[in-house]
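Bug report

Summary: structure tokens for Glucan-binding YG repeat protein differ between web form and batch submission.
Environment: batch mode, default settings.
Steps: 1) Submit the sequence below via batch. 2) Compare with the web form result.

Sequence submitted:
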Amino acid sequence: MKTGFVNITGDYHAENESDKTVYYDKNGHMLYKQKYIDGYWYCFNKYSGAMQKGFVLLSGDYHSDKESDKTVYYDENGHMLYKQKYIDGYWYCFDQYSGAMKTGFVLISGNYHSANESDKTVYYDKNGHMLYKQKYIDGYWYCFDKYTGAMKTGFVLLSGDYHSANESDKTVYYDENGRMVHADFDLDGIHYYVNSANGAITGTDTSTEEFTADENGVYMYGIDISEHNGYNIDFSQYTDQFIIIRVNWGTNTDSMAEYYMDQCEKYGIRYGVYCYSYALDEDGAASEAYYTLDLIKNRTISCGVWFDMEDADNYKANNNALNATTISTICQTYCKIIQNAGYYSGIYSSLSWFDYYIQNCNQYDHWVAAWGQNDGTLSTDTSEYGTMHQYTSTPLDKDVMYVDPSTYII
């Protein structure tokens, strides 16, 4: 009479039966269901007595009335597994006492990980698989490390394969529960502006200053600059003003853009950016918009992203693009892409261009070029046409805001 584990193979079973491993107790009785043998839990089929391997749902009379149903895993020796295990390309976690496969959020701590690993919170889907990268769970966005699965908190740059191919890089903030924040918040004395749609941090403000309009209706004075200004800008003189920086002309990078943005961030100057357009159609405008977005990713843009629509060198006229339909479509395309990326978007042009060429674009702000006497003083008021006004080019381009600077933070 055999006892213990026995492989039933060959002529030990009928031709229509499969080989199996079973267990006979000291009385020679075949065992069934869950059994604790020599320090391990095993499971034997309730009908055939075959020792189970792999994932098994223990339900019904496979457990006592006091226990709940659970999914467990038995290795090739039939032993129930516990804690973290890597199986067929996935990490799983099994309760260290019951062996129940865990799902949902789990804190991996203590003896659930090796001595050289840190505690971490991870997430297992309904199949028990550990998740990685960005995931939308129960109404919230979370981010899990692409290698360890650890849930991230705090500031995180979502770049590369942490987002889909049609998304732009962005910096976001996850609260202590790992949930992406979609509203403005204050942290360590800094106010962070957040795009409510995609969670992207669009700017910061360390100032507690409340802005009021002066006798000209101006909330803030500033300048706009490009590579034509070279290094002749003393940024320390503009800490209480704003600066708008050209970052690209067409799909070409302004050679001073990165330096100018670095200086603004160094001195805590509010700044925005603009693109001088050479687009001749909708596709060209889209290319310019995505080019701009690539140049300003990870930057703290606090005064908007503007589209410079003019034809200083007759490029548009020479290419039959100087008409209201084409110009309006180009403006709408660029601004929509910028706005959808989480930035305040507007159009720079002259009053005559806004009257004749730029139509059906009132959903986007206007930055109006109107120089008056062009003697360096503010001699005209364009506040009824847009929130920003370039009022002179002497000795360099100077501008004013007719609204509180926070207007440009989405």
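Above is the batch result. After comparison, the two runs are identical; trailing whitespace caused the diff. The chain has three domains: 4-81, 132-205, 220-408. Helices lie at 257-267, 282-296, 315-318, 324-340, 351-356.
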